[in-house]
Specification:
With about 110 residues, the protein is mainly beta. The protein is about 0% helix and about 50% strand. The chain contains no helices and ten strands. The strands form two sheets. Strands 2-10-9-4-5-6 form a six-stranded mixed β-sheet, with no helix packed on it. It starts with a strand and ends with a strand. About 30% of the residues are buried. The model has no long low-confidence stretch (mean pLDDT about 95).
């Protein structure tokens, strides 16, 4: 069973870069046929897909956030990372990582202060 765990700061200042890491266990980010994804849910709103990285390291981003989003990976640690630049309070959300098929992390709340 794949398990995912998000980690990173819970508070980021406006204009800074939000950085979160997802640690994967029970599966490999380089061999499993998954789309290692980042999704967020702002307070009172629905889920928003941010992007994913596949087992070959290819990345795909939401068109609306592409200019600010970067997803990378550390294969030695079986982790993948989200960076969202130039954040504003509108980027406040619970951020989830997922395997693109069945499993999600528990999510982590990131608050952007003005």
């Amino acid at each position: 069973q794949v398990q995912l765990q998000e980690s990173g700061p819970g508070l980021v200042k406006s204009s800074q870069t939000l950085s979160l890491t997802c640690t994967v266990s029970g599966g490999s980010i380089t061999t499993n046929l998954n789309y290692w994804s980042w999704i967020r849910q702002p307070p009172g709103n629905g889920l928003e897909w941010l992007g994913h990285i596949d087992r070959s390291g290819r990345t795909y981003y939401s068109p609306s956030l592409k200019s600010r989003t970067s997803i990378s990976r550390d294969t030695s640690k079986n982790q993948f990372t989200l960076q969202l630049s130039s954040v504003t309070p509108e980027d406040t959300a619970v951020y989830y990582c997922a395997d693109g098929i069945d499993y999600w992390g528990k999510g982590t709340l990131v608050t952007v202060s003005s």
